[in-house]
Amino acid sequence: MELQNKATALWSNFFNVKMVQIRTFHMTWFAFFSCFFAWFGIAPLMSVVRDELALTPNQIGWAIIGSVSMTIFARLFIGWLCDRIGPRKSYTWLLIIGSLPVMGIGLSYSFETFLLFRVLIGGIGAAFVITQYHTSVMFAPNVVGQANATSAGWGNLGGGVTQFVMPLLFSVMVVGFGFSEAVGWRLSMVVVGVIIFLTGIAYYFLTQDAPDGNFDDLRAQGKMEEKKKVTGNYMQALKDPRVWVLFVIYGACFGIELTVNNVAALYFMDYFDLTLVTAGLVAASFGLMNIFARTLGGLFGDNFGSLWGLKGRAFWLFVCLFFEGCALMVFSQMHVLFLALPALIVFSLFTQMAEGATYSVVPFINKKALGAVAGVVGAGGNAGAVLAGFLFKNVIDWSEAFFILGIVVTCASFLAFFVRFSTRQEDEERANFAAANIETLRQRALKANAELEEGLTAIARKNGGQPAE
């Protein structure tokens, strides 16, 4: 699928929401932010839930695994659904249906019911695939890496914001409104679920599938492949070994981020003797790096692509992943807060840059099955989180678990060298990249010319209709 009229610039048009590409960009990151916030909304409140439901460490481990396991299957399905019905409808239904278990977790009064809702909430993690899909079809090759990285990074920011907002919201429910702690954490999740529901409605009315219209209309005009070919393209993408290499790589970066989001607050409470709110604020520093770190990964991915083509994007991915693994091993050995916090921030920087670098490569693997590739690679992130979760479920020391993960990530970084492209595709993408840059320059020239004419007209009016000297 090669859609036309993609935006060739992001930052220069950043506030021009009249452009459907820019409006969609802002809706995608906010929708994903809301989903990520809800997905991990219960994590910073786990100490309260643990005490009320009398959860054992083993049960907490299963809750961590359950929260990310459902997302594997949801992401595989949602990628196919995006190719079939378009990202607009896919996101709308995911948000509306996903809001139900977010609110419903308040009905949990045993480990079994809590685990059930925790698993179901994991389904909204598939929002990431739609976000990456939607920005990929809206932006040209010269900016698609940074568009993907920024929309996903600001979405992932929800995982950091929730670490300190949810304890504050919980405090408002308990202290401000006088509810018990048992009712307070439940009502906090209801508030989040309502936000998710309303965002789903807004997404339907404020976006469209592609720059030139919705998929149904484009198919009717013969500008897109028919729905019946979607499944065939999906299966073809599954046969590409590069997709599975990226599956593993994304597990080594986003999977680690999911794991840290789940365990960070408890880790800092139990290992550094911090309070609930303080531990949440410290844990939030990891997720808050998404405000710029993932964007850097995609931005440098585009720059490496400009200099060295698609192989440059793959090499940049290796660099990010390698230093992520090294930084994680260093963090695992920090046992005092003033050393652990900067180590956590450096580790977070490379983790999120690796995620951005991954999705600066994904749009070029198979354009006819973009949803399939985005879905499978995205599922890899959750598969990695599930496997990592088993380390924290067992009785080994959590700092030791982090060190083991650091070794695994460092080894996985070398898989980036197996993401290769044919000479023909390299040449095609260089041409597309150059064409997008030319279009960017053309638009800037038109804008400058329009501003010049507007300025001359204003001067002429000031001179009483006489032309400016």
UniProtKB/TrEMBL annotation:
GO CC annotations, alphabetized: membrane
Signal peptide as annotated in the record: none
Membrane is among the record's keywords: yes
Matching InterPro entries: MFS, MFS_dom, MFS_trans_sf, NO3_transporter
Residue ranges crossing the lipid bilayer per the database entry: 28-48, 60-78, 90-109, 115-133, 154-179, 185-206, 243-268, 274-293, 314-331, 337-357, 369-392, 398-419
Keyword Cytoplasm: no
Pfam assignment, any one: MFS_1
Taxonomy, superkingdom: Bacteria
Protein's GO biological process: nitrate assimilation
Main location: membrane
Compartments, record wording: Membrane
Gene3D superfamilies named among the record's database cross-references: MFS general substrate transporter like domains
Membrane topology field: Multi-pass membrane protein
Family: Belongs to the major facilitator superfamily. Nitrate/nitrite porter (TC 2.A.1.8) family.
Name this polypeptide is given: MFS transporter
Organism field: Meridianimarinicoccus aquatilis
Source organism phylogeny: Bacteria, Pseudomonadati, Pseudomonadota, Alphaproteobacteria, Rhodobacterales
